[in-house]
Structures are given as structure tokens and as C-alpha cells.
Fold this sequence. Notes:
By secondary structure, this protein is mostly helical. It has one domain. 74% of the residues lie in helices and 2% in strands. The protein contains five helices and two strands. Strands 1-2 form a two-stranded antiparallel sheet. A hairpin with a 5-residue loop joins strand 1 and strand 2. The radius of gyration is 19 Å and the shape is globular. The N and C termini lie far apart (66 Å). Keywords: Membrane, Transmembrane, Transmembrane helix. The chain crosses the membrane at residues 6-32, 48-68, 88-108, 115-133, 145-169.
Amino acid sequence: MGLGGAGIGIIVVVALFGGIPALVAAGVVYWLRSVERSSPAVAPERGLGTWTAAAVSVLAGVALWFAWLTWGGYYTDASGQTQGPYRPWQVVACALSVGAVTGILGWFTRWRLSGPLVAAIGVVLGFSTVWAVDAGTHDSTGLWGVGYLFLLVGGGIALGLVAVVVVAIRASVAKRRAGLSYPGRS
């Protein structure tokens, strides 16, 4: 099935499964940013602003999908079963790359709390949406929509955990820096 015939269905599924959660996540990010702005303990640092981080993260998610999952194809394993289109090592390497890139982007965002979350949301939306467009054009059963939902939920949880780790490390580093900046403290 080509993009023309499946185009409207892909747009509807991506808008419902991806768009609505993205709006909810944007609300959470907006709330976190208001907390960060009002708290003197959480000052903005130099780095990617919210909109820049969002755009770079979405583009990074798309680029990672293209880098890892656009080559290969179906293959026959040792037992004669058809497998694919991705090999297991390809998926593992892709997942590790996605996590690493999300962590790096989260580290270099301006805002300590909302920045890593923006990076996680952007990467998962960019990656899963381009996956949905590809899967929706090749799958005649419609099960790609379920795969898209699983990818959003699983990727969102995993990258959300990456964001939490980055927030914790950045808070620890900021606390250590603040402790070192006062005379008489060791």
C-alpha cells in the first residue's frame, strides 16, 4: 500500500496517538518551566532553549530512524523462518543510540527540569512518527497503528527514564557547584 491510499489513515492515527499525548506533554513541560522560572534554586543554564531543543530532538529522532532502520530487510534465519525487517542487533543498537542521543541532548538544554523532558518527547515523537509513516505505507493489516502506540508508550517510558536520570545528574552537579562556590565549605 502506498502513501496515497494510506495517507489519511496515517495522519489520523499519528494525530490521535501522537498528537494528543504530545499536547499533554507540552502542558507538563509548560508547568515545569513555570516552576523553574519562579524558583531561584533552579536558574537557567546556557544551552539549547526549549524550542531549539524540541526541534533538534525531533530531527535527531528522525535521523536515528533513518540511520538504523532504513536498511536491511526481511531474511531467513537458520531454522528457515522469515524474519525482519529489522535484525535484533540492529534494534538493540538503535535503542542504545536513541537513549544516548536523548541523554546528550537533555544534558545540553538550558532548563534543568524541563529541558531533558523536552529532549525525550522530541526524540520519541520524531522517531515514532517517521516509523509510523513507513510502517503505514507497507502494512495492509493496519497493525502498524498498534505498533505505533507501543512504540510511543514504550519509547516514552524509556526516554522519560533517561530524562529523569539526566535531571538527577544535573541537579547533583549543580548542587556540588553551588557548594564549592561558598568560602569555607569543602
